[in-house]
Design a protein that fits this description.
Layout: H1 2-25, E1 39-42, H2 48-51, H3 54-61, E2 66-67, H4 70-73, H5 84-94, E3 98-108, E4 127-132, E5 141-144, H6 163-168, E6 173-175, E7 182-186, E8 191-194, E9 200-209, E10 225-227, E11 241-244, E12 247-250
Antiparallel strand pairs: 1-7, 2-3, 3-9, 4-7, 4-9, 5-6, 5-8, 10-12, 11-12
Length: 251
């Protein structure tokens, strides 16, 4: 009886997620630099003045699994939220109602991460930006299958993909970011992280259609803090942010 009830709850959850993902993706134009291959790289993003602050950003990531107030500590890192080029990439691909869902700083070491297996992010089309704080190399980077972002899934919850199926969708390439690069990709793209004892330090941003933002889990507006200035960005749904003194955060 109890198992039957649990199975029904799981099934309803899957149907709900499938409906929201499908509905949220309906108005995604999937045009612009991400349209064909599902990813792009912008190199040498910050000027020398901002780049001089990167060692402080790097230092702040040591000892923390995830820094959810990185844009509060370092407001200059919010530049992509105001950059016409990035705004255009996000909206040309996801549509005019695309918004920021999440931002954090991460420092990856060795393996054991949930992202070190081939997967999609189980949420349909969503843009992620990796802002590279340090150089990556052959032992620590992201691997992808270009153009796999257009694959449709009957059940988005089954996000892990066997290597044989990955290879069937195309060639695997390494995206080795350099310090001051922006790696921009659709998380529906087949991808995986490669990790070693060489730290991979990034600041990550996630953008989705605002209808998906009402979901909870690993998509939607999640707890992280920002400097109040981000409320002026066209990619920020300011009405969903709560004030906390000099900062704002998603509830």
């Amino acid at each position: 009886m109890l198992n039957s009830f649990k199975n029904k709850i799981i099934m309803l959850g899957e149907l709900y997620q499938r409906a929201i993902v499908k509905y949220g993706d309906l108005r995604a134009p999937m045009k612009g630099p991400l349209g064909e291959q599902g990813f792009c790289v912008i190199s040498n993003y910050f000027d020398e003045g901002d780049l001089a602050l990167f060692p402080e950003v790097s230092k702040s990531l040591i000892g923390s699994e995830e820094s959810k107030d990185i844009l509060l500590k370092f407001p200059f890192l919010s530049k992509p939220l105001f950059d016409p080029k990035v705004i255009s990439i996000v909206r040309d691909y996801l549509g005019p109602k695309a918004v920021l869902d999440y931002a954090s700083g991460r420092r990856f070491l060795s393996s054991g991460s949930k992202s070190d297996e081939w997967h999609h992010d189980s949420v349909g089309h969503r843009i992620k930006i990796f802002m590279c704080i340090t150089d990556q190399d052959d032992t620590t980077h992201t691997e992808i299958v270009p153009s796999s972002h257009r694959i449709k899934y009957s059940n988005y919850r089954n996000s892990k993909i066997d290597i044989e199926d990955v290879k069937a969708h195309g060639d695997i390439i390494k995206v080795i970011g350099k310090k001051n690069d922006l790696i921009i990709f659709d998380t529906n793209l087949l991808h995986k992280g490669v990790y070693s004892q060489v730290p991979r330090e990034i600041v990550q941003f996630e953008f989705t259609d605002i209808r998906k933002s009402m979901m909870r889990g690993h998509v939607g507006m999640r707890m992280c803090s920002f400097h109040k200035s981000i409320t002026n960005s066209p990619l920020v749904a300011a009405k969903y942010l709560k004030n906390s003194g000099d900062s704002v955060h998603f509830a």
